[in-house]
Design a protein that fits this description.
Keywords: Repeat
InterPro entries: 5peptide_repeat (IPR001646)
Pfam families: Pentapeptide
Number of helices: 1
Protein name: Pentapeptide repeat protein
Helix content: under 10%
Largest sheet: none
Radius of gyration: 26 Å
CATH superfamily of the largest domain: E3 ubiquitin-protein ligase SopA
Order of helices and strands: H
CATH class of the largest domain: Mainly Beta
CATH architecture of the largest domain: 3 Solenoid
Shape: rod-shaped
Oligomer: single chain
């Protein structure tokens, strides 16, 4: 089928172009919205500025296709081949790319708001500065991807592979990062308010100066993580492993730290006002000058901890384990 045939049939009202071979054809600037091109071959086809809104391109072969500025909003591209395709400045709002292969594709300046890239293959993809608000990247392969300055607010990234990806200056407010391996990554100064990081491996990660208000870290591993000067007001850290982490000068007021392991952590000058530390392990932790006003310390292990100059007003210590702890007045509890 030729380009002329496609245009003529479209003008006559036909929208079914399944299994069509249009490889290396020029369809630039042509309106083909609401058409079905599923299972078609469009290898190295020119589709710049074309209107493909709400088209079906299921399992289509678009390897090397030129889609610069194309309207691909709400397009169905499930399992499509987009290897080395140029999607620069393309509008992909609401598009579905479930299991699509975008290896080596160019997406600079593309609109990807509320796109579904569930289990898509995106190794080394360049998404620098892209707006990915609300995008579905669950189980996607983003190994080595460039995500610098990307807006990933409310994005769903659970199960994604971010190994080797660059994340400088990204936005992750309300993002879903549950269960990922993000150890050693640099999140310093980022906005992670209400981010979901439960069950995530974050040992050695750097969150210094970040906004983690209302963030979820339940059962996360934060051994030796840098959490200095973070805002973690009303955070959810139940059962988290925060051994030897640095939380100096951070705000953890009203944070849920039940059964968390904070042994040997640096909590100097930390605000723990109203925090729930029931069953938490703070053995050997440093809490110099920390504010624990109104904190719950039921069955909290503070053995060997240093509480010098700490504010314990309104705290019930009767059920806390204090053996060998240095109390606010400098005396050792026996």
């Amino acid at each position: 089928m030729t380009v002329t045939d496609v245009i003529k049939r479209y003008q006559e009202g036909d929208r079914d172009f399944r299994n069509t071979n249009l490889s290396k054809s020029n369809l630039s600037g042509i309106k083909l919205s609401n058409s079905n091109f599923s299972y078609s071959k469009m290898i190295e086809t020119h589709l710049a500025w074309s209107d493909l809104e709400r088209c079906f391109l299921l399992e289509s072969d678009l390897r090397g296709a030129f889609l610069y500025g194309a309207n691909l909003s709400f397009v169905k591209l499930k399992e499509a081949q987009l290897i080395e395709a140029d999607l620069t400045k393309a509008d992909l709002r609401g598009a579905q790319l479930h299991k699509a292969d975008l290896q080596g594709a160019t997406l600079s300046g593309a609109v990807l708001t509320w796109v579904s890239l569930y289990m898509a293959n995106l190794p080394g993809v360049n998404l620098c500065g892209a707006n990915l608000d609300g995008i579905n990247l669950r189980g996607a392969n983003l190994q080595g991807a460039n995500l610098n300055w990307t807006n990933l607010n409310h994005a769903r990234l659970s199960g994604a592979n971010l190994r080797g990806a660059t994340l400088y200056g990204i936005k992750l407010k309300g993002a879903f990062l549950n269960g990922l391996d993000l150890h050693g990554l640099n999140f310093s100064g980022m906005d992670l308010e209400e981010a979901k990081l439960s069950g995530t491996k974050l040992y050695g990660a750097d969150f210094s100066g970040s906004n983690l208000t209302g963030a979820f870290f339940r059962r996360s591993v934060l051994h030796k993580a840098n959490l200095k000067n973070v805002q973690l007001y009303h955070g959810q850290m139940k059962g988290a492993e925060i051994v030897q982490a640095n939380l100096m000068k951070s705000n953890l007021s009203e944070t849920d730290l039940r059964n968390a392991d904070l042994s040997f952590a640096n909590l100097n000058l930390v605000n723990l006002r109203g925090a729930d530390l029931t069953g938490a392990n703070l053995r050997g932790a440093y809490l110099w000058g920390a504010c624990l006003n109104g904190a719950i310390l039921k069955d909290t292990n503070l053995s060997g901890a240093s509480l010098r100059d700490a504010d314990l007003s309104g705290v019930n210590l009767s059920e806390a384990i204090l053996e060998g702890a240095t109390m606010p007045d400098g005396k050792i509890f026996i």
